[in-house]
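It is worth pausing here to work through a concrete case rather than discussing structure prediction in the abstract. The textbook approach is simple: state the sequence, then state the predicted structure, then interpret. We follow exactly that order.
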Amino acid sequence: MTQRPIRPIPLTLGGLPDVNDILGRDQSASDVEKLLLGGQSVLLTGDRRTGKTCFSRVVEHGLRRRGHPVVRVSAERASFGDFVDALSREIEKEFQLTSELQRWEPTVKAGPFEARRRAPIVGLDQLLTKISERGTDKRVVVIIDEVPILARAMEQEKPGAGAAVLDTLRRVRQEHGSGLSMLLLGSIGFHHIAKSSPGSLNDITKEHVGPLVEADGVYLARCLMAGDSINAIDPNAFAVAVHKAAEGIPYYIHHLVRDTRNHIGVHGFAATSLPAQLVDEALHHVDDPWNLRHYRDRVPEYYPDREELAYSVLDIFAGATGALGVNDVMRLLAATPHAGETSRRGLIDLIELLEQDHYLRREGKANSFRSEIVRRAWMATWR
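Step two, the predicted structure:
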């Protein structure tokens, strides 16, 4: 199926692989690079485990090869002050500004949080302004991972604070777009915070990070099999089975190859039917090795005050044999304890949120689960 030479790639189960071992993202990453270098900031969207962080690493690698400075920071921090501290340290490393940054104290100009440690005070926007001024010859790109996690935590602590973070980042992009671009990504949908500040993301282009196409997924499986010395009667057919069973998601491909290695260690062989069998075992394993219960556990956080209704709606879609329209779901809800809890318009709004949170996909005017793995995992938790 592929003419690329098979080379051993080590398994990476939850960590970050070497950037040269991130396969199937080169063309899309190159497209995002061009957007960033053209002054367009980008938001990477996609479900958890699809590889948004790995994708951004490929983008970063390409930017650095072309001589552009890149500042990367995760916003998954305990407080806004911690985030700005982390950002200042990354700026310090990238631009060798140690002596200058030692005189700075991170604060929040847009929001209620401060971190006073030393004078003078410099806000987040001033911090980013400082590095944007260095983007005259080579554009500066700031990559911020997990922005929604911090913004949501701030929003829950004080309404408006999370939206203020997004507003501050937008103001910097607007005022300093000639020298700075941003690449934002996160596992929690931005819409959970941005709805209280609807204009905070309207200057950003959304780029979806989805599954690998079959040629790339099969090639990744072959390389991982080579890295673990896994033999099969027909290696390519087995790799195709891995790709299909994993729905093209690199994280699941890595897990399936690992589980194949363990299976061979006990049984001594691997039939092409094995990957589908291994998926079924993972879905029903008491230890939840693929952490799929996360999809159920996050519902109360995503849908406060509506979690039971959201559970029922997802139960209905999970048990359906095909796509369902809004009227179908309303009819089926009537047979649950949540009958009458929502109007048709309210149900449409909820379904649209479930689409944005990657539970459902739209098929014309109907919907179904986006992922068969997630649908089956959802059903596996039923008692």
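Step three, interpretation. DSSP finds 18 helices and ten strands in the chain. Confidence is low (pLDDT under 50) at residues 115-121.
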